[in-house]
């Protein structure tokens, strides 16, 4: 039977077979892109939560040393208790990672931290 196909000059794949292969590769690519996008979002949320935990810890150390909670948060950075990495800006009672997340600190007993999308 292969001999008959060779005589007619039938070599390679049909158009339908190629289209099916392209569609399957496209679907697999779409699934991979969606998976990677969700990992990026989880990473940003985890980084935000880690920063909130660092601020809470630094504020607890500040409270243990001084007897009151830091107000503003810049006091934690000035005292050397808080060191955040990356493109993080501390202004007043807000810590900002531009375009990603903000942490807002409300002083009180206990203080309130609002953050993480």
The DSSP helix count reads 3
Round the Cα radius of gyration to an integer and report it: 28 Å
* Strands ordered across the widest β-sheet: 1-2-3-4
The major sheet is characterized as:
4 strands, antiparallel
Distance between the termini: 64 Å
C-alpha geometry? rod-shaped
Residue ranges: pLDDT <50 for 5 or more in a row?
Answer: none
Number of strand elements:
4
Helix fraction bin: 40-55%
* Beta strand %: 5-15%
Oligomer kind: single chain
Whole-number mean pLDDT: 80
Structural class: alpha+beta
Word description of this protein:
This protein has 117 residues and is of the alpha+beta class. It is 54% helix and 14% strand. The protein contains 3 helices and 4 strands, in the order H-H-H-E-E-E-E. The chain has helices at residues 2-7, 15-66, 74-78; strands at residues 89-91, 94-97, 101-106, 112-114. The chain has a 4-stranded antiparallel beta sheet, with helices on one face. It starts with a helix and ends with a strand. The model has no long low-confidence stretch (mean pLDDT 80).
Secondary-structure blueprint:
Blueprint: H1 2-7, H2 15-66, H3 74-78, E1 89-91, E2 94-97, E3 101-106, E4 112-114
Antiparallel strand pairs: 1-2, 2-3, 3-4
């Amino acid at each position: 039977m292969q001999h008959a196909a060779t005589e007619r000059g039938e070599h390679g794949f049909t158009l339908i077979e190629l289209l099916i292969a392209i569609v399957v590769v496209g679907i697999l690519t779409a699934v991979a892109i969606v998976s990677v996008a969700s990992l990026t979002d989880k990473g940003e949320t985890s980084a935000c939560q880690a920063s909130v935990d660092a601020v809470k810890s630094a504020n607890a150390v500040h409270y243990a040393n001084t007897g009151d909670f830091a107000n503003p948060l810049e006091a934690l950075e000035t005292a050397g208790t808080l060191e955040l990495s990356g493109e993080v800006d501390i202004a007043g009672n807000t810590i900002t990672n531009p375009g990603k997340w903000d942490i807002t600190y409300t002083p009180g007993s206990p203080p309130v931290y609002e953050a993480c999308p």
